[in-house]
Specification:
Helices cover 23% and strands 40% of the residues. The chain has 135 residues and is α+β, with helices and mostly antiparallel strands. The protein has a single domain (2-133), classed as 2,3-Dihydroxybiphenyl 1,2-Dioxygenase, domain 1. β6 and β7 form a beta hairpin. The two termini are 17 Å apart.
């Protein structure tokens, strides 16, 4: 079962510049997200908690990440919509019952929690992150 929208991830080329701009506009400080807090290596970011909504800026430290390829192909912008769940495998099973296919055979697990993804082609151009945060 989906608990709600956890947040929105935006792919950016210049994390420091984007962080300063978003801090100024949102009026809240950003929190740096280290590489181990991502399901895949080569990413870094800044998270803004705006009244419980997580707006994340994500930048790539390598040219071979999905974020780097996204920016190269489409430019900076909305990268994915994150949905929070209590039971990741149940939520993915429910989505599969509706014709969606998780991108990862085995969901990624780490200090961040558990995560899998639904391809943007299956969701009208928006990649979904199905996310069970670490407690």
């Amino acid at each position: 079962m989906i608990k709600g929208v956890y947040g929105l991830n935006i792919a950016v080329a210049d994390l420091d510049g984007a962080t300063k701009k978003y801090e100024s506009i949102l009026g809240v400080p950003g929190t740096f997200i280290t590489e181990e807090n991502f399901a895949f290596p080569g990413l870094k970011g800044t998270s803004f908690n705006v009244n419980g909504f997580h707006l994340n800026l994500i930048a790539s430290t390598r040219p071979d990440t999905s974020v780097a390829r996204f920016i190269e192909k489409k430019g900076e912008g909305v990268f994915l919509l994150s949905l929070e769940v209590d039971d990741l495998e149940k939520a993915l099973g429910d989505m599969q019952g509706q014709g969606l296919t998780p991108l990862l055979k085995d969901s990624a697990k780490g200090v961040f929690g558990e995560v899998n993804f639904i391809h943007p082609k299956e969701m009208h151009g928006v990649q979904l992150e199905v996310f069970k945060p670490a407690k």
